[in-house]
Amino acid sequence: MTEADLIFVNGNVLTMDDEKPIASGVAIRDGVIAYIGETEEALNWKGKETTVTDLNGKTLMPSFIESHIHPAIYGLSMLKLNCTPEVTPSIEAILTKIEEEVAKTPEGHWIIGWGYDDSKMKEKRHPTRWELDRVAPNHPVVLERACAHMAVANTKALEESSITEETPVSGGKIEKDENGELTGLLQEKAQGLLHIPEYRLEERVKGMKEAQEKFASWGITTVHCMSTQKDDMQLYQTMLENEELKVRIRPWIWAIDQNGFDGALEEVLGTGLRSGFGNDMLNIQGLKFMLDGSVGGKTAAFSKPYIGTQETGILYNDAEEIAPLMQRGIESGLRVAIHAIGDRAIEVALDSFENVTKHHPIDHMRNRIEHCIFPHSNQILQMKNLGLLAGSSIGFLYHIGDNYLAKLGDERMSSAFPHRSFKQAGVPAPGNSDLPVTDGNPWTGIYGAVTRKTSSGQVIGLEEGIRVWDALKAFTVDAAYSSFEEETLGVIKSGAKADVMVISHNPLEIDHEELLDIKTESTYLEGTMVYSSRKEGEPIV
Predict the structure, then answer these.
(1) How many of the other CB atoms lie within 10 Å of CB of 30?
(2) What is the structure's pLDDT at 1?
(3) In this structure, which of 97, 234, 309, 316 has its CB flanked by the most CB atoms within 10 Å?
(4) What predicted TM-score, i.e. pTM, was given to this entire model?
(5) Phi, psi of 471, deg, nearest 5
(6) Does residue 453 register a pLDDT over 50?
(7) 101-104 contacts: CB < 8 A, separation 24 or more?
(8) Are residues 157 and 119 part of one domain?
(9) Do the Cβ atoms of 515 and 496 come closer than 8 Å?
(10) Which residue, of 176, 193, 210, is where some domain finishes?
């Protein structure tokens, strides 16, 4: 018998394989699972150079796969002012933070903050340009909202970007007050009007290194980048070449110019690039399109208005516009993921996929509707018939579910994030956080999928709750399915990649409320430890 490099014994192994869900021993060789079963048999793989880890009853499971985040953007956030509600719970706290940054920043240099959330701040409103001007009259300042669909700019930033009351914008909004003056709030495509200086490659590498350390601490070893642009690909390839990439990247290339992002559809089609190009660490997935905005900004597109308004959101394109672009990509061998949150946007996404099927079969491609939070039951069945996946942002339920409830009401929210309906219909629904829109710890998404509770304890649509096992699958084998890797990622079985993690509690045995307390103790990428919460030499228990 060939010797293993690493053996785990005496563990509670959750394989995420329905055919063999539980084991106690695992043997790993050359980064691959060589054996999964009982401890005694696993020890038969022991050799002189084998490392044996006694789990002492601790739980081992596949590491997480984040099916929809923005890793490069999250990396850049590490270089910006942290204005999340936990750090700056009020506008005055944000202004104090900016004032401190102004004191050490040369006049005229841009100051960028990220992560503010008006719904969670004391004032329950956006900052204004005049408030930012008060502490930074001579520095261009931009605050990016957590959802990435809005930003607030001060007067200097607006001037530097030549944005005035007369500036036209399509697919977005430049907010004005009752006197017709700019408030500084820019929504959706209007953000692309800002002339924010680009970060250098070495700065991006620095931020990405910090980001992937955070991923590993959450037990995440694979991430789908859902807004990949040229600079992002340069970043990932540079880190891969320098052996600095410690997380698997699955890029979805931003297709057309939207939200301040440059589309690369023509360039990608011109090169003949197809889904699956790359290697185990960096593998192209397809094209990303976007149909609507966010619920927080009341820009997600619904068939009925938001509570207390006549607003129904912003629909960027109709099926006649977007379907031909999707078709070109699909016919070139590129899969499609399309952002659609509200039911009206989901309808356009489905109509677009239906239009494509008139010219090209798609039910084998595992195309995706991203977020897919408010589909009607007939739309879910249509997704099944088209072979589509729901890239479910179930992480939103815990973190921003209260804000959703306030804007949409109980009735609409009762069928939001319909994981049980997805399962019953046979629509795979890998879970995600949309980091940095919400916190990237997958356990909050798992908790929300099971308990249907928000961070304040409100229960939303309990009938759509799912079992813990199924919630775990949403962030493991189901997420791997979305990239045709369900045999090698997100599962512990012979021949799979040894991407595993040791966690503090068995999620199948604890009270559901304790899911939020689970911590990652160690994370392995292909059998190599990339994170440990323990000090060197400290035992597992």
Answers:
(1) 11
(2) 63
(3) 316
(4) 0.90
(5) -65, -40
(6) yes
(7) 102/135, 102/136, 102/139
(8) yes
(9) no
(10) 193
